[in-house]
Amino acid sequence: MTRKISILSLLLISTFSVSISSAVIAASDENLTVYSTRKEHLIKPLFDAFTAKTGIKVAYLTGKGGALIERIKLEGKRTKADIFMTVDAGNLWYASTQNLFQAADSELIESNIPSHLRDPDGLWTGLSVRARTIIYSTERVDPNELSTYQDLANAKWEGRLCLRTSKKVYTKSLVSSLIYHDGIEKTTEVVKGWVKNLAATPHAEDVHIMTSILAGQCDVGIVNSYYFGRLQAEDPNVPLKLFWANQDSSGTHVNISGAGIVKHSSSPSEALELLEFLSSIEAQKIYVGLNKEYPASQKLKADNLIAVWGDFNQDKMNLSVAGEKQAESVSLMQREGYK
Amino acid sequence: MKSKQNNSNFLMGMLALSVSFPIIVVCSAWFFPGTELWGHFAENLLPELISSTLLLLVGVGIGVSILGTVLAYLVVMVEFPGRSWLEWALFLPFAIPAYVLAFVYLGVFDYSGYAQVWLREYTGMPGFDIRAGSWAIILTFTLVFYPYVYMMARASFKRQKIQMIEAGKMLGAKPFEVFWRISVPLARPAIAAGLLVTLMETLADFGVVSLFNYSTFTTAIYSAWGDFRSIEVAAQLASILVLIAFFLIYFEKKARGKAKYYSSDVSHVRPYEANGLIGWLLFVLVFGVFMLSFAMPMLQLIIWSLEKYGEELSVMYSGYFSATGILTVTATILTVAVATLLALPSRRKAESKTLQMLIRFSTLGYALPGSVMAVGLLYGVQNISLVSIYLGGQSINHILFGSVALLLFAYISRFMAIAYNSTSASSEQIKPVYEQSARLLGSSRIRLIREVYLPMMTPGILAGGLLVAVDVMKELPATYLLRPFGWDTLAIRVFELSSEGLYDRAAIPALMMVFIGAIIMLLFIKLDSDKY
Description:
The complex is a heterodimer of chains A (about 350) and B (about 525). Chain A is of the alpha/beta class and about 350 residues long. Chain A is about 45% helix and about 15% strand. Chain A folds into 2 domains: about 1-130 and about 255-300, Periplasmic binding protein-like II (D-Maltodextrin-Binding Protein, domain 2); about 130-255 and about 315-335, Periplasmic binding protein-like II (D-Maltodextrin-Binding Protein, domain 2, 3-Layer(aba) Sandwich). In chain A, strands 1, 2, 3, 4, 5, 6, 7, 8, 9 and 10 form a 10-stranded mixed β-sheet that branches. In chain A, α2 packs antiparallel against α11. In chain B, α2 packs across α18 (about 370-390), α10 packs antiparallel against α13 (about 230-255) and α24 (about 490-500) packs antiparallel against α25 (about 505-530). Chain B has a domain at about 1-20 and about 315-490: MetI-like (MetI-like fold, Orthogonal Bundle). The relative contact order of chain B is 0.14. At the A-B interface, α1, α2, β2, α3 and α8 of A face α11, α12, α15, α18 and α19 of B.
């Protein structure tokens, strides 16, 4: 009997909470709302700083890229999203092709963020930069042996290379940039060579690439700069170093996290305010401090990072290309068996 | 009388149909052709993906069947040292999300992990990549999912009449023969049910196969969606998973056999006793499984969390707890309620093959990758809105998107399989004579349900509730997409941290999930032992 009563009361609680939830959603209309594929611990400090400065509160919903984009599309005109924030230019480009964004006309953003890190039509802007470059074991590799991404396909690296899986968007964008610079035939040869040189199944995480190199499973790899930054912060003597690839040719491949104003946003002017804030020096400093990324703003130099890693030439390819060529690069990798 | 029965069939059919909603949406993608992409996939990906998926299913199937059944048999039929607490301890791996176990295993056993580093130092054995080939991922899935088979087989073994086993012994059968020729065949339906659920979850898995970078069918689904931006082809591929699951269900029915295994006795006496060396050998074996599947990962999680709890713990955690708690409790109650309703024995239902097919179809949501199902649900709601607008009404998207109601619906649709498997296994054990006697005595159907069926189905209802609760707690992709603002669960926290490589911080919410899972377990033990 008591069990039945408790079950009944639980059922009542559940219906009650269902009805509360609708009310909660309605209340959040007063804030700016950001849909983000960047995780909470990386975006909350930025929004807190914005609220402290302007008084505008920011509600946010984190999620996975593809699914979140579908949701905004389906929400249509009544979407609650004001800003869509994501990582990797490929995702930003795709969102723009799905008519998710409205053009942000802002001289401030245009002067803060260099053009190759922004959508040519102003639909989205990059906000932080990460370099995807070569990492090597200082114990087993002489930096004079290193030069380009393409060179890692060379037979001298056989059994010594660790790479990220082709399923991760960072790899797709890198290969897209190679296709852009070298064409598809040359890039096919490069990917073939990479696959031959692999010391292990392509890794699911950059962090694992670094631990593999440290354990001796491989000697070189390609990682995002900030993962190494984090590792180095925990262990300053770690026997790994970053090597800036392609300095004498196209420049090191970079990618961005970025955002754009949602087309059917109900508060576009406040959304623009947030976007401008994120491109300002104050916010850019937070990006650098939080996750050891490079600022997208050309008005801020990441002095501490540069002091440790040295300055480098960025690939100036407009990053929307990474998105445009994504299907091509994935087809290539799937054909050549690069997992 | 007749029209009442027809009504109940119709109602059950409608219920099953509505639970099937996201599955139907996904399967309807076949109305949209996507030829070019299929060509590229067929040439470059599908052959390898199909064979690796089949290999995985077969390997994991064999693994969990053997491991789950043997463990359940030992724990029910044989008295050996440590049996009493190991019986419950073997349930615990349930509470850890599969991909958390996977990254602990990789962390410990891969080239750069403790185990191989130690081996290289002390034996000079060369290192190796455990992600190459399929044996390691099969082993991982086996250790993650054996509890499903264990649980079902254990319940079944407990209900076996002690007299049958004693008869076998008296006729001179050795212990293994009794196991293989008496107990296992009787437990076949239960083992098959556990196996079915395992294989469906393996098909739908995304986390473990990502960490191992093992390409399965789901790889093509996500590639079609994310790389080639063809959600139609992604849904078409996903519906093939539904088809595979349908076949699995068909085979499971065959495995259950035509015979109905009625049993109402419960034995407390264990027919076998293992003393001395053999007893301790069994202990080592069973304890070994417990170590690998639970104790060792827990130890790693605890070590990690000790380093990072200061950094990670915050006021946000009260929110994570309440979100996890509310969603888990309500989803469990609703899902089990629906599963119980659909499992209630009924003569009319037994006569309607269509209804039975429909009910079985409604359980297929379990085989769909979570993201696919969640997006399918959104598209389904959009279609309803379009119809509503066409009829002069309004769109309902903004009401439903991000509501608890829609998320709960997704959970019901997703986890029907496990709840229904459990409740139907229970209801199938109810002899028809009860309904006949009740009718003769003039009892109404409601009274029959309340006073006869429900009490007899309670073990299945409880077991189903336990499984659903733990699965809802661990659920990620549907929760991620459909949750209301600010309703982050512990599972989401684990994902967000671990996907950024912050495994040590992720250990803290992971441990909390295990803690909640253990509480659910204890609840189940308490309720279960009231019966036995």
